[in-house]
Amino acid sequence: MNQLAALLMLASGAIHASVNAILKSGGDKMSSRALIDGFSALLVLPFACVVPFPQDAAVWLAGSMLTHLFYLLCLVKAFEAADMSAVYPVMRGSAPVIASAVAVILFGEPISWAVAGGIALVSLGTLAVAWWNAPGLKAIGWALATGAMTALYTVIDAKGVRAAPSAESYFVWFFLALGLCIALVFAVWRGPVFLLTARSQWKPGLIAGALSLVTYGLALFAYRLGDVPRLAALRESSILFGVGIAVFVLKEQVGKARLAGAALIAAGTGLLLALR
């Protein structure tokens, strides 16, 4: 079951990088995010009629909504401030360390020295990316804030999906509540700009919205099967896919330091995948 959870999380990481590449390549980032989450909510809406509301996980669901709101705000600001190849590794690589600390200290999740070593390699890779050719303090600040929010919602959703009657129940109501909330808040925030963005970017928004369901759906199912510290670090394999997309699709310049950091992250991911 742990290996299945690991494979689910690896696939989740790859798709997550694609979603963020679509967001980064768009025009107005906040409007694009409103489209993505709004479409996610519309896609799961029919299932709300057949999947029960996860009453036992309601507190975790509410906490996740609030955390994701701040997470997406920080994410948008980070992408507005710098290249994806510069900030994406920082925001994703800092998350597993924080998530592991919270999960172990506050919730008593198990962690071995081998898992800690894999997490350390992922984190060192992140530092390598952030230290050389840093995109600036403002961008780094938003990226680290995004990582902190990622860590927080990771632990909250892991507890929530385990408290829910089924992974499907938490999944549907999570995306329905989050999508409606984010779409409404960000669309109102941007006003007329959102309408202009929706007219030209609705197709990428729909694709990214569908992919968002897949990437976080895989993560939620994995959290019911395995331990949070290992799985949180494995999901950050998205950094590798993110750097690849930044280079080959977005045509960003990536130096040797960022490639070295990606190699460390790959080593840490390989170690975590090898563990049973």
Helix-strand pattern, N to C? Answer: HHHHHHHHHHHH
Q: In angstroms, what is the radius of gyration?
A: 18 Å
The best one-word shape is: globular
Which regions have little confidence, pLDDT < 50, spanning 5+ residues?
A: none
Strand coverage percent: under 5%
Distance between the termini: 9 Å
Strands, count: 0
Report the total helices: 12
Number of discrete domains:
1
Structural class label: mainly alpha
The whole-number mean of residue pLDDT values reads 82
Biggest sheet, in brief?
Answer: none
Binned, the helix content reads over 70%
What's the arrangement of secondary structure elements?
Blueprint: H1 2-25, H2 29-44, H3 58-81, H4 84-93, H5 95-107, H6 113-131, H7 137-163, H8 167-190, H9 192-223, H10 228-235, H11 238-248, H12 256-274
Helix pairs in contact: 1-9, 1-10, 1-11, 2-8, 2-9, 3-7, 3-8, 4-6, 4-7, 4-11, 5-7, 5-10, 6-12, 8-9, 10-12
Outline of the structure:
The chain has about 280 residues and is mainly α. The protein is about 80% helix and about 0% strand.
Task: Walk me through this protein's architecture.
There is one protein chain. This protein is mostly helical and 276 residues long. It has one domain. The chain is 82% helix and 0% strand. It has twelve helices and no strands.
